[in-house]
Write a structure and sequence with these properties.
11 strands, five-stranded parallel beta sheet, binds calcium ion, 9 helices, alpha/beta
Length: 218
């Protein structure tokens, strides 16, 4: 059972996120207060903390700094309306694993949650495959037919994302969110560049371009 703590004082956002996460099989505890959030993660077991910055009691940065100061390695996804460069830097320096600016779509949030926590079923299988392609999750290598290739960490993440969505068209935005997380420029062509890198290793036909929609693993 995957247990997520959501620290968010907007009742509307908390209801939307809680409902969506529960529908996807996660157990969610919600608090609207920073001090209570800190108390909960220090007394109970969670797999992920989704943390708003503007919280009553203690703000999200303080919660983050206190947790990291005590050596906690709990994955933390920052959720905030503030999207300034300073806040991003402060969140990362404070040891957040990911950062999401409001407004966001639930799909985006879910993709990031999945990146941080694997369900037990996923974590026990050590490889993903499709057709001739097999990705070894332990050694982070890909085997195409009989030939083995090394992947960079971005190539690995991108291929993993394709293999976890068999037959599905993934948009550039989904790939950016899933592979680069908070650290990307939406206008960037980095997705296309990495698709080219992957094609060099997997074969030119391995990833299909779906005009105006994105990419799909063949
Ligand atoms: Ca807030």
């Amino acid at each position: 059972m995957t247990h997520i703590l959501l620290a968010e004082d907007s009742a509307r956002i908390a209801a939307f996120v809680t409902k969506g996460l529960r529908a996807n099989g996660y157990t969610v505890t919600h608090t609207a207060d920073g001090i209570e959030a800190l108390d909960l993660v220090q007394t109970q077991d969670f797999d992920l903390l989704i943390l708003d910055i503007g919280l009553p009691g203690m703000d999200g940065f303080e919660v983050l700094n206190t947790l990291r100061g005590t050596g906690s390695e709990l994955p933390i996804l920052i959720l905030t309306a503030r999207d300034s460069v300073q806040d991003r830097v402060a969140g990362l320096d404070g040891g957040a694993d990911d950062y999401m600016a409001k407004p966001f779509s639930f799909d985006e949030l879910l993709a990031r949650v999945r990146r941080r926590i694997r369900t037990p079923a996923e974590s026990t299988s050590s490889s993903l495959s499709s057709g001739e392609i097999r990705l070894d999750l332990m050694t982070r290598r890909v085997i195409v037919g009989e030939v083995e290739h090394e992947l960079t960490s971005r190539e690995f993440s991108m291929l993993e994302m394709f293999l976890r969505h068999p037959g599905q068209v993934l948009s550039r935005e989904q790939l950016l969110n899933g592979v680069w997380g908070f650290d990307y420029d939406p206008g960037s062509n980095v997705v296309d560049v990495y698709v080219r890198y992957l094609r060099k290793k997997l074969g030119d036909d391995a990833i299909q371009t779906m005009r105006g929609m994105g990419y799909r693993l063949a």
